[in-house]
Design brief:
3 domains, alpha+beta, elongated, five-stranded antiparallel β-sheet, Immunoglobulin-like
Length: 683
């Protein structure tokens, strides 16, 4: 490239980077449409460890997490709190940084055209947008990989050692190979502390070093000491992580859970492995990632035009990478010295190895074609897609001061047209799918709790609502946390599972999410004057509690009455909160929790159906109201299905409260560990 084009090129990559940043912050609070479990766990459990002073290189939470992303994200949480900026902005920055780094490495390998087109395509891609806009650590891996590879190729183009008459300081000068290999080692090691897929990155470099030894021996001979130093330093920097994993191998349960094809192959069943290879290779043109969390299920990475560019790029890379093998065989037949592979051969082989190693996790893990597991390959995919354009303008050369080519005007014009067509096809398709189609899908709305997010928006706009009930599955504290992150008012929501319970006071509730109430549906009166919020609808609760004898427990919960119906064999309990509840502190714990850590509820309710000798006929445990959200004066009811075995005779029902972690029962104020009522008629 001519020196006069450098300022123009810099302005262009700056514009592409700014576009990438804009696409990653635009509507960040609405797309994704809410909060998912993993984001909340990553930030408010794992990253919170760092804010609490619990520093580590590896966290055992949620099946194991490398610490670097969480350490950086802790800083974001400290600045912005648990908001979209505190939880997602680090991913925005990492995803944006990937774009100029893709350009730099693409230019280093194949020239400016490939670098610019690859960077622009990546900036527009659904794949990159997805991981740049959620608070997951996957997106932190591509920048470290790109930086490591960039400095590796800078080192490969430099003298390995300074002349003997030069000062030793030149060994570490920025222009020396040694300096660049040391930086390669640093960024290679940094990747180990981001995401487990980084563990395959050294294999890319090792495989390429073998390629160099076979087809570019003079280059390998000059640089092999630098290669050894690179690998040794990277290993040394990764040693703390390696030792940590050896001490707690159980924390990597997720890795073993995913390796189903490998497990099957070890016992002689290669069918799953073959199926995964085929499915993963087709993710770019036919069948993509099947998970709603990350994709429109089975949507391929590219549309028809992009897929053509990719596979033409793969074919070109294969052609150039294999040419030295043909030349090597020809030299053997002629008994002549082997020619050294040219820069285009080396760059193509390196890119192919990178791409194959990057998508290889999809071959050996479930699910196949996973965008997250293949995140290492993200920049490589778009460089391959840009290769046909670079080939047209003759840009298949490693950039060096001694090698500069200026493409013909016609080739340049054709390249511009093809680049525009490619980028428009990617941008239009991926932009529509990511910002419009994907967030509106029902399963996406469910998984990301869009209804809860929209409820927060409504409550923020109506500060007059201070007490309200909300239905939920109560599968952990994540629904409550999702709402709390978006709330800006003093409202105090009470949470309950409408399958088994009902909130009687406060009487204003938002119900129907995730499904319509199953328990006492007749108590719900729709409020037509208030709008629907997604699946949520406003109801007024109107239900008269049967009279009975009140029994209070030491923690502040009082059962107002207990009714057992011998025909339906259902026990219904009506409760009131008499005072602020005395409960064990609730600690946020990841899902799944670290090995040996209890993550369940600290209060539950048991109900036992007994015969005349006090023997247990049936039992049902559970509490379907989030007691931590309850306030004094609140009332709720729930039922227990107690079906007696055929031929047995039930005479009594006993129920009470207990701590599932310790098994200790909560006593009544008069010292009993349970309450007993007749099973024949109830009370």
């Amino acid at each position: 490239m001519n020196q006069t084009r450098i300022p123009y090129e810099r302005w262009l990559i700056l514009a592409i980077t700014l576009l990438a940043f804009g696409l990653r912050v635009w509507r960040l609070d609405t797309t994704p449409p809410g909060w998912r479990d993993d984001e909340l766990i990553n930030s408010q459990v794992i990253s919170q460890h760092v804010l609490d002073g619990d520093w580590a290189v590896y966290f055992a939470d949620a099946s194991g997490h490398e610490a670097l992303y969480h350490t950086l994200n802790a800083g974001m949480l400290a600045l912005f709190g648990p908001t979209v900026w505190g939880i997602r902005f680090l991913s925005v920055l990492m995803g944006t940084l990937t774009v100029p780094l893709t350009y730099l490495l693409g230019r280093k390998l194949f020239g400016s055209t490939v670098g610019l087109v690859a960077a622009a395509a990546l900036a527009l891609s659904f794949w990159s947008l997805m991981y740049s806009r959620i608070g997951l650590r996957h997106v932190s891996l591509p920048p470290s990989v790109l930086a490591a590879f960039y400095f590796f190729w800078r080192g490969l183009s430099r003298k390995t050692w300074p002349a003997q008459d030069r000062a030793w300081r030149e060994w570490l000068a920025p222009q020396s190979a040694l300096f660049n290999y040391l930086l390669t080692a640093v960024f290679l090691a940094v990747g180990f502390y981001t995401y487990f897929a980084a563990r395959g990155v050294p294999a890319i470099l090792l495989a390429f070093m073998i390629y160099l030894a076979l087809f570019a021996w003079p280059t390998f001979r000059r640089h092999w000491p630098g290669f050894l130093l690179l690998l040794a330093v990277a290993f040394g920097l990764a040693l703390p992580l390696i030792l940590t994993l050896q001490r707690q191998p159980e924390s990597e349960a997720r890795v073993s859970e995913l390796a189903v094809p490998l497990v099957e192959a070890r016992v002689g069943n290669f069918a799953p492995l073959l199926d995964h290879v085929i499915t993963t290779l087709s993710m770019f043109h036919r069948t993509g990632d099947g998970e709603w969390l990350y994709n429109i299920p089975n949507r391929p990475v590219f549309g028809p035009l992009g897929a053509v560019f990719l596979w033409v790029g793969v074919a070109l890379a294969v052609w150039y990478a294999l040419q030295p093998a043909g030349q090597w065989l020809g030299a053997l037949r002629r008994r002549s010295p082997r020619p050294e592979a040219r820069p285009i051969h080396l760059a193509s082989a390196f890119l192919l190895l990178w791409w194959l190693a990057g998508i290889a996790p999809g071959f050996i893990s479930v699910p196949p074609a996973s965008l997250g597991h293949a995140i290492v390959a993200l920049p490589a995919v778009f460089m391959l897609t840009a290769l046909p354009v670079g080939w047209i303008v003759g840009a298949f050369q490693i950039r060096s001061a001694a090698s500069r080519s200026v493409p013909a005007t016609g080739a340049r014009a054709l390249a511009v047209v093809l680049s525009v067509l490619l980028l428009v096809s990617i941008g239009w398709r991926d932009g529509q799918d990511y910002f419009v189609n994907w967030p509106q899908r029902g399963m996406v709305r469910f998984l990301y709790r869009a209804d809860i997010h929209e409820t927060a928006v409504y409550l923020n706009a109506h500060p007059d609502i201070t007490d309200i009930g909300l239905t939920s599955l109560l599968a952990g504290p994540w629904d409550q946390l999702a709402l709390a992150n978006d709330l800006r008012t003093a409202v105090q929501p009470r949470w309950y599972n409408s399958d088994r319970a009902i909130l009687l006071n406060p009487a204003l509730v938002l119900a129907d999410w995730p499904q319509k109430p199953q328990f006492l549906p007749e108590a719900y009166t729709p409020l037509a004057e208030r709008p629907s919020i997604g699946a949520y609808h406003f109801y007024q609760i109107d239900y008269e509690i049967p009279s009975g004898e009140q029994v209070c427990f030491a923690n502040g919960l009082c059962v107002e009455t207990a009714v057992y119906n011998p025909i339906t064999q259902r026990l219904t309990l009506f409760w009131q909160v008499s005072r602020p509840l005395d409960l064990p502190p609730r600690t946020l714990i990841s899902n799944p929790p670290p090995p040996g850590v209890y993550a369940g509820s600290r209060l539950s309710l048991f109900a036992h159906l007994l015969d005349d000798e006090g023997a247990l006929l049936a039992g049902d445990d559970g509490l379907w109201v989030d007691v931590y959200s309850l306030q004094p004066g609140d009332q709720f009811a729930q039922f227990h299905q107690l079906t007696a075995p055929a031929g047995s005779v039930a005479t009594a029902v006993a129920f009470g409260l207990y701590d599932p972690m310790t098994g200790a029962r909560i006593l009544t104020v008069d010292g009993r560990d349970s309450v007993t009522i007749p099973a024949a008629s109830g009370n």
